[in-house]
Amino acid sequence: MIRNTLIALAPALFCGACMQNTADKDAAMPEPVPPLGKSACSTEGLDSLTGQKGTPDLAAKALRMSGAKTVRWRKPGMAVTMDYRTDRLNIDITRDNMVTGFACG
């Protein structure tokens, strides 16, 4: 009797082990959160550089004004890493190297 019950339940047990968990696939990935604490970078006062030609001299001036240690130029459609660095200044430029904005990280 027990043997017949086990034989009858075996397919259900095997099928249950093969089912996929779809809950993880439906969950949206959270946006990266910047680390807490004081950032080494600030974009205050950099608006005066918007609209100028992106040059090494402009980058040096922006670094001094922002307090950042590194700079990253970002052009439209350019692939960039998603890592957040508190000491990095991102300079957004057009394809013609005109500065359109600044962001820390």
TrEMBL record:
UniProt keywords (A-Z) are: Signal
Cited InterPro entries? Prot_inh_I78
Superkingdom classification of source: Bacteria
Give a yes or no for keyword Signal in this entry: yes
State the signal peptide span: 1-23
Identify one Pfam family in the record: Inhibitor_I78
Could you tell me which residues belong to the region Disordered?
A: 29-53
Name the chain's protein.
Answer: Peptidase inhibitor I78 family protein
Q: State the organism of origin.
A: Stakelama pacifica
Taxon lineage: Bacteria, Pseudomonadati, Pseudomonadota, Alphaproteobacteria, Sphingomonadales
